[in-house]
Amino acid sequence: MQISFSELECANKKRVTRRDRFLAELDALTPWPSLMAAIEPYYPKGEGRGRSPMGLGRLLRMYIVQNCFGLSDEGIEDALYDSQAIRRFVGIDLGREDAPDATRLLRFRHWLEARPLTETIFNAINAHRAERGLFLRQGTVIDAPLIAAPPSTQNRTGERDQEMHQSKKDNQWHFGMKAPMGVDAHRGLTHTVIGTAGNVSDIRQANALLQGDETVVFGDAGYTGVEKRAESQGVPVTWHVARRPGKRRALAQDTEGKLAARLEQKKARIRAKVEHPFHVVKNLFKHKKTRYKGLAKNTAQLMTLFGFANLLLARRCLSAINAQGAS
């Protein structure tokens, strides 16, 4: 097939940018056949009036790039014209066709949210990783990080998002939602994500974050007393919940107190793995605030974000496994 001048110019450039490397790696890591097989049965086939639907593969790739770079619908449309790396990832050649507009992506995103198919994408990615032995179900780390929402009332309705709420943390009030999540205690990969309002207590979602095969669960001091709750009775797990800071400072300096402090440090190292996927979502994918209105849309986006965070984190796990096998 004859290539266009824009593709030839990109192929001849000497320097490979970080965006080029990131998208090439993302393309190689993503289980495209599994994702397509999971959502293609629901995709419209172009019957009836209106524009015929665009190819599912292109819109899915466009949606993924949008989330991985933290772009709006209009922002990813502009990026397709500005970046050859993004065009190559999506599969667009401007020498032969126009880039998909923001409206097409908006409708595709609403279609994913209505099914909900972003959860299907999340589960398909995790199933693909599980086939490679990257999910070990013996232990789970749970946490409920806060995600800020715009507090401004300078909008059409003159009010803040009614599904978001205030939450107090470290003597400061935050407005937004929480993302209760369960993470594999061995690999640090997210297996469960839930979206709740900011004022929902962490401990109320604890049992919903379990896979069902765990023997141990780790949580911070916000989960103190979880083993006494009615929904925890009969659940065959051992809860390792951190001591509250005041109780840690009050530990005696004798041998028993020092052993208890050392145990708290070891539990903290395990709990730290819950921060790894959230670090990717917050700092690499630039998702520091909610983008949409309402819990349903933002939770649907979190499913996609944490699914692809698992892909990037699993790369490190596979490298470690390969290194152990070579040694």
Task: Characterize the structure shown.
- By secondary structure, the protein is α+β, with helices and mostly antiparallel strands.
- It has 2 domains: 5-115, no CATH class; 136-326, 2-Layer Sandwich (Nucleotidyltransferase, domain 5).
- The protein has helices at residues 5-11, 18-29, 32-39, 56-68, 73-82, 84-90, 102-114, 118-131, 245-249, 255-271, 275-284, 295-326; strands at 139-143, 146-148, 165-169, 172-178, 181-184, 190-193, 196-197, 216-219, 238-241.
- The strands form 2 sheets. A 5-stranded mixed β-sheet has the order 6-5-1-8-9. Strands 2, 3, 4 and 7 form a 4-stranded antiparallel β-sheet that branches.
- Helix 8 runs parallel beside helix 12.
- The longest helix is centred in the last third of the chain and has 32 residues, at 295-326.
- It is globular, with a radius of gyration of 22 Å.
- The two termini are 44 Å apart.
Can you tell me the CATH topology of the largest domain?
Nucleotidyltransferase, domain 5
CATH first level of the largest domain: which class? Alpha Beta
Strand order of the largest sheet: 6-5-1-8-9
SSE arrangement, N to C: HHHHHHHHEEEEEEEEEHHHH
Q: Mean pLDDT score, rounded?
A: 90
Number of DSSP strand runs: 9
Strand content: 5-15%
Number of DSSP helical runs? 12
